[in-house]
Amino acid sequence: CIGKGGHGQTWIFGPGYLGCSLPSFSSEDVQEVVHEAVPSSTAIFLGTERLSTRVLGPEPFTACGPSEPITRRLRNILQEYGEEGDLFTEMVQNAEDASATVCRFLLDLRCCRKATSGLLDPGMAACHGPALWAYNNALFTEDDLQNITQIGAATKEGQAGRIGRFGLGFSSVYRVTDVPAVLSGETLLIFDPNGTHLGKHIPRAGSPGIRLDFSSRPRILRVFAEQFQPYHGIFGCCLPEPGPFPGSLFRLPFRTEEEAVTSQICSEAFGAERIQSLGTAFLGSNRLLLLFLKKVRELSLEMLPDTATSAEDTMPLVTLQRKEIRDLGAPGDPPSWAAIEQLSACEEESRTTWHYLVLVCQGDGELLELFHQNTQAGLHPPLPMAGVALPLAPTEDGKWVPRLDAEKGQVFCHLPMPIMSGLPIHLHGAFSILSNRKGLWGTAERGKWNQVLLHNAVPLAWLRALDHLRAMHEAEKLWYRSLELCQQHLDSHFLQFFPLMKSVLPMFQDMVREVYNSPEEDLGMLVDKNLSVPQPLVLLQVNLMSWAGTTAWAAGDKGDSAPLPCSGETPHAELSPALVSSIRRMWSESREPGWESWGCSAWRREGFRESLETFPMPKEALRELRGDLGQGPGMPGQG
């Protein structure tokens, strides 16, 4: 209570504390002061100061230091995320980290009735228009709820199995909205960085949002029922009726023209046309989104038209699914895995499927050593994992063949990145990536990690995947067209997974060399005894393909390899002893009658010569071999 004392003093009484005003100060100063026992929040509420503050005066130092408004920080983050479609990727990342198996999106085009009461704040009326909903079937933990409120805090860094590392992913939602909301269980978070929609509920600009816990305060749902009306029926949500939501639901009301004018985060409004473009581009940009994920297996986009009267009027647009067709066993310690995976896309009445042999394994040697070094130094490195995806196609008799019309190889770090490698396969690695997921680090410690990962774990995964193809063929699960292989001069389906170096992006060429530089016995294991073409023939093809682009496959002593002029696009190349040995051995075997017994009658000496002429062979090297191979007509390189 407050009372008046003598000499013009004002006394403030309360349980355990006492305060009074000091009449000696001028009218411009704060007159009421309180005892030190009074909490600072109470003093602020009463518009007073603590007695010590009033007596001692202001602090001798003025507070200062680096600071940045949250709105400016978010605006700078959005400059790194080039497109609004990035938010789909980030939402799937959050779902994967939460161990969800399903992630669904809904374009809600409804313009809900104009609310005049029952809102948390009058400013929230602008959020009752069209919105993007994102749902996954995993509940947020308390840590997840805390993490999503942090900007750039890297709260997931160092957590095994977590994709998010920078605390920036959720910020991508501000491309389309100013007031995102997250519902999980009985907890609802609403953020308002501009402070224009929940102003009276946000005492501090540093925490621009509110948290509502319906379990402890169910009265909120009754008092502000109109606020939660748009949630009713969306992905099974019962709000404003009480009850926990069995998953996590994000609501992103699209930024209106009026909001765009005053927003300090983004000045881009989302009208009907731009909202429709989000749905149009969804399949093209997300077809491979699930390829290397282990938990999320279904992704969909739906639409609720502006004429809908309830959430039951939802229309499906696209559904993407990932299904394991065959478990190939773990190629190493967990979390290594290998399987034939099917990706499918359903649009209206059409359904398209793609198949891949996907293998993810842990690196060894130098990579593991670097991982332990970085861990001991407190750098929180990602797990030393890498993987590959080889495109396959099913045959009518239930076997598999490499898919010849495969897409261009793309680089993944769990999720697809905008980097095309030039490889005939997709590759995945636990890379050190830029915060916006647009590129790989190439310098300093993070760049070194990527280099070792590419030289160690990726080639290992590649060879193990090819070994699975060999094992599948031995078990008669993989189909080889052996006659066609012979007629097309070693151009087998199997060998399409060995790239020509000249087609590979420079940053990945050393990785390809690591595959080709594997010992001959390691490459030899990829060719099984059931092939109708002799093993040296396939090994020669691998050697030639690697050497034709830039550098020879030098499995032997590289010191004995002499650089030679090379015809074709590359000015120089090396002809290694291993390659010379393969050519000599193949030429000798091609002259023996037993060649016909391999079932390759089309493969006579002329066929072998023609196959060599397919590649830019150094003429000096061929002249060097003539003494061993003979000088008969049609000799490769002659004439």
From TrEMBL:
Coiled-coil annotated spans: none
Protein name in UniProt: Sacsin/Nov domain-containing protein
PANTHER family attached to this UniProt entry: SACSIN (PTHR46919:SF2), ZINC FINGER, C3HC4 TYPE (RING FINGER) FAMILY PROTEIN (PTHR46919)
Residue ranges of every copy of the Sacsin/Nov domain listed in the record: 68-313
Annotated organism of origin: Junco hyemalis (Dark-eyed junco)
InterPro entries: HATPase_C_sf (IPR036890), SACS/Nov_dom (IPR058210)
